[in-house]
Amino acid sequence: MDADRMTRLITEAVASGICDHQLLGKLDGLSSVESGSVAKANLLHTYRRRINRTPTGSDLHKETASLLSFLEKHQQDDLTMASATFEDGRSELFLLDAEGDRILHWMRMFSRG
Which pLDDT value is given to residue 82? Predict the structure, then answer.
């Protein structure tokens, strides 16, 4: 996936309320995007274990709970995970539909910068 496509997908995700409006101001300098297929079952297994190791009420616990809620409701078995990296070192991580055509969840717990 190229940076122009990711910029369009993030803009659409902001418009639909999936991502915060603040991301629009970060789109300048988007330098690379990496994406690949990921099985929903693997993510559920990982984050069900991980939520038990995070302090209840912490931001990380809330974000992990949000991710689990999304995954449990999502119907497809496969998703696309995409990482957007910026020239200044910032990065964002997203879950998209299996085809990589639409951002479904912003994994803000992995936001850097």
Answer: 97
